[in-house]
């Protein structure tokens, strides 16, 4: 008799467009491809998912995509057998009937809450601890993170080697950019911008426009386009639009799939990213970056920002640390960016080396998918 694959269920509610589904989709595919698991991904919004996976049938109750069984999470839950491992992504509440199915299994499943990424010190102490119980089924905290004692970061096997080969091949970069219709001028710095709405953008665009080094800014379709339009004095920006103001060329890109977005980050000299998924991918790109953290009530997100900066800036000289930290802080309160950008540019070579060192340091930890599988192995 062939050995039955371990069955995993991942539940995802789409909260902020693509962040939650972006993380769970990457995780589900990696668990299938690298760990030979049977994975069902339950999603409550297939229309948002369709942007990441155009092959998805948004009307199908169940379908298989890239080895993952994708299931609609309907408002009216239909009976389903509970899996061996159950992941509630980002504290989403499981259907009551499914929780009953977990409790009725002869052997209770491993039930984990996959939490949001944070660099805060308390995460290490809480990672892997028991949480609440439902009847006799115990839930556990599982925290991604940047330090030993956490669950690590999503990173597919071979990703960094793929990135290294790509970045050392100018022809591969040129061909990829050409596919996107991007043809930067010789000597221009290439920057990607993926962000939430931000009142600080106008001052940053102004600083880039007046910089002696020309800048080609690539803006994938998204929420920040309204701010770009206001600065340019235009309306209706869409994919393919190109506008030039002094030393700054602004080009709007279509929404691209995850593998293409990775290559976009690898192609750029500097990446402005947002949320969680693109934030992690920018770190694997090993380029200087700017993070727009998801805003939370009472500004508690700024504590998370400071916690990450404390880790990230270790090893930098005091002036370089002050420059990049000032840039990040200004960006995340919608402040003036020009002076901070000029200071950052002064320390560019050091920040480039640091981004590479940080990437290698993070790669010393087990990746998130492997850490989850190891946690299950230890649990049973």
UniProtKB/TrEMBL annotation:
The keyword Glycosyltransferase applies. Keywords: Elongation factor, Glycosyltransferase, Protein biosynthesis, Transferase. It catalyses: dTDP-beta-L-rhamnose + L-arginyl-[protein] = N(omega)-(alpha-L-rhamnosyl)-L-arginyl-[protein] + dTDP + H(+). Pfam families: EarP (PF10093). One of its GO terms (molecular function) is protein-arginine rhamnosyltransferase activity. InterPro entries: EarP. Protein-arginine rhamnosyltransferase that catalyzes the transfer of a single rhamnose to elongation factor P (EF-P) on 'Lys-32', a modification required for EF-P-dependent rescue of polyproline stalled ribosomes. Belongs to the glycosyltransferase 104 family. This is Protein-arginine rhamnosyltransferase. It comes from Pseudomonas vancouverensis.
């Amino acid at each position: 008799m062939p050995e039955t694959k371990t069955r995993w269920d991942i539940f995802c509610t789409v909260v902020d467009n693509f962040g939650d589904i972006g993380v769970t989709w990457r995780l589900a595919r990696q668990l299938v491809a690298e760990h030979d698991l049977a994975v069902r991904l339950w999603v409550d919004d297939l229309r948002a998912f369709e942007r990441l996976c155009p092959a998805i049938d948004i009307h199908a109750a169940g379908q298989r995509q890239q080895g993952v069984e994708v299931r609609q999470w309907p408002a009216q839950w239909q009976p389903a057998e509970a899996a061996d491992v159950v992941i509630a992504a980002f504290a989403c509440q499981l259907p009551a009937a499914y929780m009953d199915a977990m409790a009725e299994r002869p052997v209770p499943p491993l039930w984990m809450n996959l939490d949001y990424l944070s660099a805060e010190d308390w995460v290490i102490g809480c990672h892997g601890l028991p949480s609440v119980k439902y009847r006799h089924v115990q839930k556990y905290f599982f925290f991604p993170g940047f330090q030993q004692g956490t669950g690590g970061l999503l990173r597919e096997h071979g990703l960094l080697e793929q990135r290294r080969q790509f970045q050392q091949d100018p022809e591969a970069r040129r061909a990829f950019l050409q596919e996107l219709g991007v043809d930067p001028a010789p000597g221009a710095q290439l920057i990607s911008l993926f962000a939430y709405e931000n009142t600080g953008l106008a001052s940053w665009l102004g600083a880039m426009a007046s910089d002696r080094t020309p800048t080609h800014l690539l803006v994938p379709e998204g929420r920040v386009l309204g701010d770009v339009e206001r600065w340019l004095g235009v309306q209706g920006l869409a994919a393919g639009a190109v506008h030039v103001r002094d030393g700054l060329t602004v080009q709007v890109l279509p929404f691209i799939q995850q593998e293409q977005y990775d290559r976009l980050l690898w192609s750029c000299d500097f990446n402005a990213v947002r949320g969680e998924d693109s934030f992690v991918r920018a770190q694997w790109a090993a380029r200087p970056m700017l993070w727009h953290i998801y805003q939370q009530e009472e500004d508690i997100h700024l504590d998370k920002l400071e916690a990450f900066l404390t880790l990230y800036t270790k090893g930098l000289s005091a002036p370089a640390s002050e420059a990049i930290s000032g840039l990040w802080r200004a960006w995340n309160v919608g402040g003036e960016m020009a002076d901070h950008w000029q200071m950052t540019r002064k320390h560019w070579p050091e920040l480039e080396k640091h981004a590479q060192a940080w990437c290698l340091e993070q790669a010393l930890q087990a990746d998130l998918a492997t850490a989850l599988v190891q946690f299950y192995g230890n649990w049973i």
